[in-house]
Every structure is written in structure tokens, then in C-alpha cells.
Amino acid sequence: MPKAFVPLTQFVNESKSIPREHPLDQPVARWTEEEVLGEEVVEAGVAILRTRGCYWSIKEGCSMCGYFNDTVPGGVSNDMLHSQWEKIRHSLKGKRYAKIYTSGSFLDPTEVPLDFANDVMSDMADMGIEKVLVESLPEFVHPKHFNYSNSPKIEIAIGLESSNPVVLDKSVNKRLRWPHFVKVCKTAHENGAEVKAYVLLKPPYLGERDAIEDAVQSATDAAPYVDKISINPVNVQKNTVVEKLWFRNEWTAPWLWSVVEVLERCKDLPAKVYSDPTGGGTRRGAHNCNDCNGQILDALKEHRLGHGNLKGLECECRSRWEVLKHQSSYRRNGAEPHGYRRGFGNGRRF
Hints:
By secondary structure, this protein is α/β, with parallel strands linked by helices. The chain has a single domain, classed as TIM Barrel, CATH 3.20.20.70. The chain has helices at 8-15, 55-59, 78-89, 114-126, 165-172, 178-190, 208-222, 241-247, 256-265, 293-304, 317-327; strands spanning 29-37, 40-48, 97-101, 131-135, 153-161, 194-201, 228-233, 272-274. An 8-stranded mixed beta sheet has the order 1-2-3-4-5-6-7-8. Helix 3 packs parallel to helix 4. The longest helix has 15 residues, at 208-222. The radius of gyration is 20 Å and the shape is globular.
């Protein structure tokens, strides 16, 4: 069977490598970043717990997600999770906002045991943290999974990715259904949590124009049901379908100009819409040319923090992006000519 016709589920599994060994008592990472809390910009503490990882990644996985590279499929014991937490909690002292990631679903009790999650939330509340963000697949957004005895305000980030069922199935390899997404958003709000939706920009097989239209439509559909929407330009993560397509020159990362267009078209939606591109300005992430990458990324950060707008951004490469958008429906699988974004060589991969 020709490679182009291999089912996406098989392609996803073929992309994965044997997981590396990881220290179970060490979190994946810790850092701080600026975030908005109410009307203030505060320093947020961010950490990634090392866990078993996403159950869907173990079963099949999404085409763009490489977070399984940092997980331990055999699972991590409660003792090791507590050891990780002891290393994390010191970096959260004095913070009012925390983001606790797991490379999976914090609300999945088979990944993060409920008693450990309750201890973590109670500890953060005692430390004076006012809000904590966690991520979860929608199937785990159930009141019993975040009915903590004591906790900060809970913000649940859900990977909607796209409101288009064809894009979800064929480009992302995700089984989320729109009615279920709406239901869990209502459930979260009814139980005192806020909801943030992740919307992808340019998953596999979408050209630049179609990717923009899909992201705008998905954000428009989600806005009545969520508090925030993060536009996530797809980036090239290790051992993924996206990386395979990228190496084969069958897909290229979206332009930062596309991010700007999506945000401008979504500025009047009833939810806050912003973008903080992972790997922005690199070949593996959303980028323009070297002359304007820094300027655009700075503008996106200011926009995310509520300090500015995206008006007046210009660069010579914008005209090339406009031409590419017009031509993208004629190009296969979301790829573009080598060297089209000047300043990045001749399309070399690394």
C-alpha cells in the first residue's frame, strides 16, 4: 500500500520511538512566566509533573503531540509523585498563579491519583496561590475529579483543537465530539471552574488559508462556552506524524502572520483569544522571516498580557505570505516552496 494511504492511526503509532528512561522523582521541568490574573500581570509558577502520560497517547495518540517523550508509560508511584511535588512547591512560593501540567490529563485519576491531586491543591491553597491551571481531556472533566477539599480557583484547559469533526478525525486523530465538549464546559462552570480551550492552527493536511479559516471558525464556535481560547500554532515535536511530514517536505509550520490574522478576526468574540506560540520564530514553530520574528513574537506577548494590539505590524515577507495564502489551496498537504521565508535558508531541516 502506498505510504500516502497508510491510515493515520497507524502513521501515529509508527512515529513513536521507545521512551527514554527518566528519573521518577524529578519533574519534567519548572519555570516562571508572566500571566494575567484578573486585571493584573503576575509572575506564574509553571511545572510539568512526570506521569504515565495521556491515556489516548498510549492507545493511539494525536498527530502533532510529542509529549509522550517525557512520560513513563509504566506509571509513577504516589511516593515518586510526592517527591516531584516537593521539588516543585518551593518554586511556587510567593506566586499567586500556578500551572501544573502532566503531559496528559491532571483530572484522569488513573494518571494522577485523586488523593495526590487533593494534597497538591490543598498545599497550593495554603501557600496563597489564588488560581491554578490544569489540563485535561474532556472525558475526565467530572465534578468528582476536581472536588478538592481545599484548593485555589481551578482553571481547566481542554484541547478542543478544532470544532470541525473531519479535521479532528483526519488531521488530528482525536475522537472528541462537539456536543460532549459543550457539555463538559457547562459542567466545569457549574462546579466553579473556569475553562480554557486550545485551538490548533494548521494541523496536518491543511494549507495556510484553510488552517486560518478552521482556527477562526473553531474559536468562534467555542467562545460562548469558555473563558479563554489559546490559538496554538502546530509545532514540530519529536517522534510525531507532523515531524515525519515535515522531514518529507509535505508540511510546513504556519506563519506568524497567520496567527496575527486569526487573532484580529477573533478580537470581538465573547472569550479572550490570544496566542503564545511554542517554538515561535524557529523552523519547528510558527515563524515568518528572521527580520520580523522577534517583533511579531513581542507583539503577541504584549497582546496576551493585555498591553497592546496587533495593528501596524509590517514586514517585506508579508506580501509573500499573502501570495502563499492565495496559492495554498493548490499545494499538497500544507507544504510550501523551500526558502519561501527568506532568512531560513533553503528549507533545511534540523
